[in-house]
Write a structure and sequence with these properties.
By secondary structure, the chain is an all-alpha fold. 64% of the residues lie in helices and 0% in strands. The protein has four domains: 4-85, no CATH class; 99-214, no CATH class; 235-300; 308-443, no CATH class. Helix 12 (235-244) runs antiparallel to helix 15. The longest helix is centred in the first third of the chain and has 26 residues, at 60-85.
C-alpha cells in the first residue's frame, strides 16, 4: 500500500499535468483563478520569487505562458512542502499541515485544530484564516470545503489579507483566539438564527482587527475583478495595442468611436484633429491611421472607460479623475463621496455631460447603463446621436451662462445617482426611472420606450 505522501504527491502531479494539458482551453478568468488558488498556498518569500513579473492585468496569452512555467514549479514546491511536513509521519494538525491542507479543510474542521494549536499556526496562515472568517456570510460555509477557494474569487479577501499584514502577531493571535470559540459555537448551534448571529460576531471580530468598521458583506464587490484593481502603468496601452492589431477596419472604426466618446471638446481638438487633418474624413481613415488615433487617445486619457460615469457611484472608478480605492470608497461618508463626484464632474464639458444624460434616456434599466456592449451600440444609433445633440443645444449652448443649465442638471443627476447607489430592489428601480424622467423633463427629450410599450418622461 502506498503511503499518504506518495498518494498525495501523485495527485498533485496529475493535477499539474492535467492543467498543463488543458491550458489552451483556459480562458483569462480561469487562468487568473488558478494563480490565485496556488498563490494562496505559497509562503511569502517563495511567492515573491515565483510571481515575479506576474500581474492579473497581463493579456490572456501572457497569462497562459506564465502558467505554463509556473504550474510545474508550484507542483514541485507543494510536493516538497508535503514531504517536509510529513517526514515524521502522517499528522494533520499544526504545525504539520501543509498550506494546501489548510485550503482544503472545511472551516469547522480547520478552526478546531487551530484553536487547539494556536501558537503553532504561522502568522501568514492566521492572516489567511482570519481574512476568510471575515467572509463567513452564510451558515453552510462552515461545512463547505469549497469555501476556502470560493473566497478567492473576491478582491475583498486580498484587501483583508493586505490590511492584516500591518497587524502585530500578538493582536492577530488574540483575534484568532476570539474567533475560534465563536466558530465552534456556530457549528454547534441548533438554529439558523443562532448561527447567523454568531457569524455576524465572527465577521465583526475579523473585520475589526483588519481595521474595517463595516460588515464585510457590504464591501464584497464583483467576482473575479482584477486585483490589484488599478492597472499598472503601461499595461492598458500595451493590451490595447495587441487588441488593435487583430481588428478589422469595421471594428477599428467602432473602437475609434468608443475612444472619441471619452474626450472633451478641448481634448478632441488637441489629440484627434491632427490625425483627422491627414484624411478627407473619419470614414476614409485607413486601418493604420485608426490604430494610431486610438493609441493616441488611449495614451492621452489612460484609465477612462465608457461606463465609468455610472459605475463610479458604486465603485469609486471615476470618469475623469483617478479612482478612489474600492474599500475607501465604500467606507466614505455620503458627503465625501458627493464631493469626489463633483470634482470629477468639474473636468467634464457640456458635450460630455450631454452624452451621459442621453445615455440615461436610452438605457431602459440601470443594468443597460452599465453594460459596455449596450453603451457602445448607442454610438451608431441615430436617435441617440440626435438626442445627444438636442440636449447639448438646449442646455449647454454657449451664451447661456456657458452651459450652467446643463451643469445644474448634471449635478442634480449626480446627487440622485449617489442616493440610488445605496438603494436596492424596487426602490432602486424607481429611483433610476425618476432620474430618467428628470432628464427628459429638463431637456425636452423623450426617454426610450420601456418593455411595456409605455414612454418614460
Amino acid at each position: 500500500m502506498k503511503s499518504y505522501v506518495e498518494l498525495v504527491s501523485r495527485r498533485l502531479e496529475d493535477r499539474g499535468n492535467n492543467i498543463l494539458g488543458n491550458l489552451e482551453q483556459f480562458l483569462e478568468p480561469q487562468l487568473r483563478f488558478t494563480m490565485r488558488i496556488f498563490g494562496d498556498c505559497l509562503d511569502e518569500e517563495t511567492r515573491a520569487t515565483m510571481f515575479s513579473g506576474y500581474s492579473e492585468h497581463l493579456s490572456e496569452q501572457e497569462l497562459r505562458a506564465f502558467a505554463a512555467d509556473f504550474v510545474p514549479a508550484y507542483t514541485r514546491y507543494a510536493i516538497a512542502e508535503l514531504e517536509e511536513k510529513k517526514k515524521d509521519g502522517e499528522r494533520h494538525e499544526p504545525p504539520f499541515l501543509t498550506q494546501e491542507e489548510y485550503q482544503e479543510m472545511a472551516v469547522r474542521e480547520k478552526w478546531a485544530r487551530i484553536a487547539e494549536h494556536m501558537d503553532l499556526v504561522p502568522p501568514l496562515q492566521l492572516r489567511r484564516e482570519v481574512a476568510r472568517a471575515a467572509m463567513l456570510f452564510r451558515p453552510y460555509m462552515l461545512s463547505d470545503p469549497g469555501f476556502n477557494e470560493g473566497v478567492l474569487e473576491f478582491s475583498l479577501y486580498f484587501d483583508l489579507h493586505q490590511l492584516l499584514r500591518s497587524v502585530s502577531e500578538t493582536r492577530l493571535r488574540g483575534a484568532a483566539g476570539e474567533i475560534a470559540p465563536r466558530i465552534a459555537a456556530a457549528v454547534a448551534a441548533t438554529s439558523e438564527e443562532g448561527r447567523e448571529g454568531l457569524l455576524r460576531e465572527i465577521r465583526t471580530a475579523a473585520a475589526s482587527v483588519a481595521g474595517l468598521p463595516a460588515d464585510p458583506e457590504t464591501l464584497l464587490g464583483p467576482p473575479m475583478e482584477k486585483y490589484p484593481r488599478e492597472v499598472p502603468p503601461g499595461y492598458r496601452l500595451r493590451e490595447l495595442k495587441n487588441t488593435l492589431a487583430t481588428m478589422t477596419l469595421k471594428d477599428l472604426r467602432l473602437s475609434a468611436l468608443v475612444h472619441l466618446d471619452l474626450l472633451t471638446v478641448e481634448e478632441t481638438r488637441r489629440i484627434v484633429l491632427p490625425f483627422l487633418a491627414k484624411y478627407p474624413s473619419f470614414y476614409e481613415m485607413p486601418s493604420k491611421g485608426l490604430r494610431e488615433l486610438i493609441l493616441a487617445v488611449g495614451a492621452g486619457v489612460d484609465g477612462r472607460s465608457i461606463t465609468y460615469f455610472i459605475e463610479r457611484y458604486g465603485s469609486g472608478w471615476m470618469a475623469m479623475t483617478k479612482p478612489v480605492d474600492y474599500i475607501v470608497w465604500k467606507l466614505m461618508p455620503g458627503e465625501a463621496r458627493v464631493d469626489a463626484l463633483r470634482r470629477d464632474n468639474e473636468l467634464m464639458d457640456a458635450a460630455m455631460m450631454s452624452r451621459h444624460l442621453a445615455r440615461f434616456l436610452h438605457s431602459e434599466s440601470e443594468r443597460d447603463l452599465s453594460d459596455a456592449g449596450v453603451q457602445i451600440a448607442l454610438l451608431t444609433d441615430a436617435r441617440f446621436v440626435a438626442d445627444h445633440g438636442a440636449i447639448l443645444a438646449r442646455l449647454g449652448a454657449e451664451g447661456e451662462g456657458e452651459g450652467e443649465r446643463i451643469k445644474r442638471l448634471y449635478d442634480a443627476v449626480t446627487l440622485s445617482s449617489a442616493l440610488m447607489a445605496g438603494q436596492r430592489g424596487e426602490e432602486r428601480e424607481s429611483a433610476y426611472q425618476a432620474i430618467r424622467g428628470m432628464i427628459a423633463d429638463a431637456a425636452g427629450v423623450i426617454a426610450a420606450t420601456t418593455e411595456g410599450g409605455k414612454i418614460d418622461g
